[in-house]
Amino acid sequence: MTDVSRISSAAGRSPAARPEPDGRSAYDVGDRKALRTVLGAFATGVTVVTAEGDEAPHGMTANAFTSVSLDPPLVLVCIDHDAVMHRVLGTTGHFGVSVLAGEQEAVARHFADRWRVLGTAEFDTVDWRPGPLTGVPLISDALASLECEVWRSYDGGDHTIFLGRLLSLDRRADGEVLAFFDGRFCHLDLDRSEVSA
Ligand SMILES: Cc1cc2nc3c(=O)[nH]c(=O)nc-3n(C[C@H](O)[C@H](O)[C@H](O)COP(=O)(O)O)c2cc1C
Predict the structure, then answer these.
(1) Is the CB of 7 under 6 A from ligand 1?
(2) 69-94 pLDDT tens trace
(3) Structural domain boundaries in the chain
(4) Which of 14, 16, 19, 46 has its Cα between 20 and 30 A from that of 121?
(5) d(Cα 23, Cα 19) in Å, to the nearest integer?
(6) How many degrees, rounded to 5, is the angle at CA 36 between CA 190 and CA 151?
(7) How far from each other are the two terminal CA atoms of the chain, in whole angstroms?
(8) Ligand 1 and 62: CB distance under 6 A
(9) pTM of the model
(10) pLDDT tens, 26-67?
């Protein structure tokens, strides 16, 4: 696993933990570090959300991505009010989601880096292609790529929950997953078991 201390505030001071007899630790829900520590136990994939801004396309690394509904086909992303992407999604009708593959950690770091150059240069170092229906940038060689129209948005505290109705979908035949766990990127050695549902 590789540390993301420069781009994530998950690293640094440890939150105040109250040891419990069974080896677990309890934390204060008002402590932001504690929230990151505990919620970081939920392993996710890593996506780049993309959209056309007023003057240039914009991308942002996001792991608060979930499939929501099959009929209609909906996904959601949660975007921080302070993110540039929040303003962009508030004014555009479409967004893209690229699910990153194991070898795309550098792409994830690029679009999470708050000091990256924005504007037309933002995508200069990244391979991308325009989405077939909306033209939003999709990261080349991502495991999966989605184009969405903004369907609804909801208050989510200091984030906004944007629901997207799927317009197009594609998926690579194979490839490794880029995952995020405990504030770090990880490369999974998959031992897959079937789920019957
Ligand atoms: C693995 C990872 C996942 C992230 N997930 C989200 C997310 O789901 N929502 C969010 O608002 N920020 C998320 N971030 C933080 C943004 O990527 C970061 O703040 C970015 O610089 C915001 O870009 P912008 O302000 O230029 O739009 C994540 C960062 C990392 C490293």
Answers:
(1) yes
(2) 999 999 999 999 999 999 999 999 99
(3) 1-41, 45-183
(4) 46
(5) 7
(6) 80
(7) 32
(8) yes
(9) 0.92
(10) 999 999 999 999 999 999 999 999 999 999 999 999 999 999
